[in-house]
Design a protein that fits this description.
Length: 308
Amino acid sequence: MKKILILIMVVSILTTFVSGCGNPNKENDTGYKVVATTTLVADLVKSIGGEYVSVQGLMGPGVDPHLYKASAGDVKLMQNADMVVYNGLHLEGKMGEIFENIEDSEKVILAVTQGIDESSFIDFVSSPGSFDPHIWFDVKLWKEAAKTVAEGLKELDEEHAKDFDISLEKYLGELDKLEEYINQRISEIPEENRVLITAHDAFNYFGNAYGFEVKGLQGISTASEAGTSDVRQLAKFIVERKIKAIFVESSVPRKSIEALQEAVKAQGFEVEIGGELYSDSTGDAGTDDETYIGTFKANIDTIIDALK
């Protein structure tokens, strides 16, 4: 009798194991496993993929993707995923080789910027031919990124291609409304006040799209720090233009902007820190700012309210 009970238990365990291995790349039938690098990319995949994907983000809110180093656990997640989605244009500067190494015929590897016409990109001033990766600050370019993600998801899951198309159209409509909100808020300040000064050059696409003069204390990547001469020159510009406010960023230490504020004060002018902007990530999970749309609205509200 004891042997029979043991046999029944073994059969039960094996049955459970086999039934759970029908598709090792699905989690309890909640969708294909997709790994996304930044919170912005993860939100985009979730917006288009919906219930058919299970999205795991590598970087949390406030994490600087320029400096991020993938852990062994991150690499394993990507190796075990059905699809890996990243921004591209070297935003994830220290992860390029990893993306190349995990490419195989069974995995979809997708940069959300790969479908955007190269003529839309902003060149590095110091390195022509290398492009500014912060394309999400132009909503029109983020729409193109959304279309690229939809195509990648259809490649991954042909069965639900129509669902992805429907989600895409809905999301594009939401982005249209976001653009209307951005332009309405910008109209509240005169053109001469449309000057945005931040910790690093993350907002050039924003400036081009919405008519702002943009200056960053650091370069497009945060890998190099601003020098004393950079701080002094930008402080002089602020004094001459009588700029009302400058801004810190969620993924960049405050010290550089605080140093700039002190340099301005030393030249006999007071400039306020107008608030914190989200640059390379969305806001915290569980808040209104955890999505791309919520993040952009929060940014535009902070900018306009400080510069009015």
